[in-house]
Amino acid sequence: MELRHLKYFLAVAEELNFTKAAEKLFISQPPLSRQIIELEEEIQARLFIRNNKKVELTEAGKYFEKEVRELFQHLERITIKTQKIAENVSGEFRIAYISSIYSSVISELIQHLKAEYPYVNFKLFEVSTTKQISALEQGKIDLGIIRSPIKSPKINSKLWFQDGFSVVYNKGLIQINSEKEIPNLKDETFIFFNKDYAPHYHEVLLELCAFYGFTPKVVHESNNINSIVQLVKNGLGISIVPSNIAKNNKDSEIGFIELKKVNLYTDVSLITSKEDDSEITKSAVEFLLQFKK
Fold it and tell me: How confident is the model at residue 293 (pLDDT cuts 50, 70, 90)?
């Protein structure tokens, strides 16, 4: 079995049409059909159901397609890693983070890595937790910074710090002097993260409000923490944000009340691929772990 057999198989599996698959591969149809027959004979399994009207994958073919696609993804990761080794760790190093944790520490991380690896092109991406996990599994990023939980057999996760929560409000519109007054916010308009974008985080915010005895009236949603804070500043409502945001926000128009009575936290974690044992990844993780919040 050769790689071309697998590439031809995937083309037919995708198009479910030998003529279109042959055009996509820039070959004629008869050689393509022969290659597929050779592949089926070698693995002793029928992969396609063929008739004059249509082409379909058999159950064996569906399984084979899934495994072959994963094989090619793995091969791509191997190729990228081999290239990095050959180039003495040059090329790109891609770091993803969620908007609610960006701070000067990440800038310091880039400066630290740039000093150690001057030929590497470092790239930063603001990406949701769910998409980071998928991207890391596919080898599209090298390091992720997320809010847990995480369930993936392909990923290593290390706790960076635990983050509490704070109510954020416009000081000119709302007067809150202490955590005792939080129940009085039940009639206020709330701005939350979109439930589909950050489902776990959204549920935690609902739990926080329930602890203080009310269900929030969520009118506005956003997928970016900075946008949420700006909406609060513009007087469109109040919100509950990670306390890390309060520590890094110096805007005099914005007020924060930390929610200390409720025992709810989110874990901010550093995630890497289990297949990645590169020195640059180890250096990045070790650097960040020095800065426990």
Answer: low
Give the C-alpha separation, 25 to 18, whole Å. 10
CATH topology of domain 165-264: D-Maltodextrin-Binding Protein; domain 2 (3.40.190)
Does the pLDDT of residue 214 top 90, yes or no?
A: yes
User: What is the distance between the alpha carbons of residues 200 and 177, in angstroms, rounded to a whole number?
Assistant: 29
Q: Report d(CA 116, CA 238) in Å as an integer.
A: 43
- The CATH number of domain 88-160+268-289, selected from 3.40.630.30, 3.40.190.10, 1.10.10.10, 3.90.1150.10: 3.40.190.10
Nearest to 167 by CA among 196, 198, 192: 192
In this prediction, residues 162-190 reach a mean pLDDT of 91
Q: Tell me what pLDDT residue 134 has.
A: 92
Q: How far apart are CA 112 and CA 190, in angstroms?
A: 39
Q: What is the mean pLDDT of residues 174-200?
A: 87
Going by C-alpha positions, the residue among 260, 244, 233 that lies closest to residue 179 is 260
Determine phi and psi for 150, rounding to 5 degrees: -135, 135
Residue with tokens 């550093």: 270
Q: What is the mean pLDDT of the segment spanning 271-285? A: 91
Query: Nearest Cα to 24, choosing from 6, 40, 8, 37?
Result: 8
Tens digit of each residue's pLDDT (9 = 90 or more) over 221-254: 888 888 999 999 999 999 999 888 887 778 889 9
